[in-house]
């Protein structure tokens, strides 16, 4: 099969900007896990589709705003996670929980806005959907229903699995020198694992990895990759060898032991779980045509009691996952560095219908008119 | 300037045990006289691996009398020093007396305060007014300038330097050859494996690994927010 996308989709600035507006500006984009902001005035400040976004929690309600003061465009919060009132650090403007300007220091003396202009001063608000422990944001003023992007079974799956998330997360943003789509195409392709991760990931899958490939091999020759948005998000399970540790007995595991759970959330999230004990969200955030910020958020399953060494457990698991990622990064950076405008389109085999389908759905969203 | 090595084992205990595994255990076993440990009075137990600590700790500790014995737990910085804490904590719960081991070539200010199960390696320098919490290890040739405070269950790597007035909370791991500028503050559960230099406030739950491009941070209660506010 000829690839849906060409070299230009991984190189050109104009395509990147179109993608920011039409793909990331119109789809539901993963913003953070709810556990990251599970307290009054807790916030996450992230770039989503190139826009600075502030996701805040007030008395249990999660809202998202442009992270820009309407006065002089200063970000209210630096990128990251924290807790605090919505106050602009530049001139002290205070915002209420609905994004309206609550007070401006010395307003009457210094600013003297006309009433109609004063009424317009507020933080721009974005739509939020909370699916279990997952927080999604949509930058579109008239967003599609989330059920147009994720199937009912996928949404229910996210609610079910995230009910087992613990309260403490570990997060890392890793800068990588390639186009974000290369990473998503990489994670939906199981055949790279024995070659790219022969000593890190492949040994844990063992025969189960071969069986997963067999499932792909059974795809009929005549079957066409699906361009449907709903079909790009799916989940699967496979056996995985997991060494038992004492803390496993202390937590509320999701599902059966020795199982690897894999989820793809269109357009740019891969969410996995190791034995329902460890959960990792990896998100590929576009920075430029040849730069991606890979966002890792990992947590353990929740427990009613305290796990003493939890910080060390989370650190060790994140380091293992980052080690696997860096093996992919080495390959993908090399691939990106050798791409040229005149490079031919890729030629995909039958098993790569997920890669082709992703490209087709992406192209649908790149059109001026939103897909039906 | 006198060292504290002589005072560490004074008055003379009836016997002394050293338990553990890894580099610090082997360094002490290799040079007991360097730590003023009288060879005839010492008993050693080397665990086969860090993984063996938890399952075997109670059995080993049951063989050691509580009275008339001092104990030292020598385990490296695994799992933010929780591996060492596994053994140290159980010994403390049993009411056992834990000593300090300070190499005779270390230079420790008389005004420094060192808690129990503290290890100070060869040629380390501990400046005046420093306070080192329980179960914290300071590696060979590390330098702590004046008025440094390090909490319990910490690790200061060989050759690292901690500037004057630094404040380091519990469960810190400062890698070999790392440098902290004066008045640097580390929250709890911070690992700095890269040399730096480091300065300012490093929030609790910050991890900087040897080869990784980006730091990792813990998020949630006690790290990025202080209280659960959701109804």
Write the layout of secondary structure elements.
The complex is a heterodimer of chains A (372) and B (231).
Chain A: H1 8-11, H2 13-22, E1 29-33, E2 42-48, E3 51-58, E4 61-66, E5 80-83, E6 94-95, E7 101-103, H3 107-110, H4 115-120, E8 125-131, E9 134-138, H5 152-162, E10 165-176, H6 180-187, H7 193-196, H8 202-205, H9 207-217, E11 234-239, E12 259-265, E13 269-274, E14 278-288, E15 291-301, H10 310-337, H11 353-365
Antiparallel strand pairs in A: 1-9, 2-3, 2-5, 3-4, 4-8, 6-7, 8-9, 10-15, 11-12, 12-13, 13-14, 14-15
Chain B: H1 5-8, E1 15-21, H2 23-30, E2 42-46, H3 53-62, E3 69-75, H4 82-93, E4 97-98, E5 101-102, E6 107-108, E7 113-114, E8 119-120, E9 125-126, E10 131-132, E11 137-138, E12 143-144, E13 149-150, E14 155-156, E15 161-162, E16 167-168, E17 173-174, E18 179-180, E19 185-186, E20 191-192, E21 201-202, E22 206-208, E23 216-219
Could you explain the architecture of this structure?
The complex is a heterodimer of chains A (372) and B (231). Chain A is α+β, with helices and mostly antiparallel strands. The two termini of chain A are 26 Å apart. Chain A has 11 helices and 15 strands. A 7-stranded antiparallel beta sheet of chain A has the order 1-9-8-4-3-2-5. Chain A has a 6-stranded antiparallel beta sheet with strand order 10-15-14-13-12-11, sandwiched between helices. Chain A has a two-stranded antiparallel ribbon with strand order 6-7. The model of chain A has no long low-confidence stretch (mean pLDDT 93). Chain B is of the alpha/beta class. Chain B has an 8-stranded mixed beta sheet with strand order 5-8-11-14-17-20-22-23, with no helix packed on it. A 6-stranded parallel beta sheet of chain B has the order 7-10-13-16-19-21, with no helix packed on it. Chain B has a 5-stranded parallel beta sheet with strand order 6-9-12-15-18, with no helix packed on it. In chain B, strand 1, helix 2 (23-30) and strand 2 (42-46) form a beta-alpha-beta unit. Chain B is globular. Strand 10 of chain A pairs antiparallel with strand 23 of chain B.
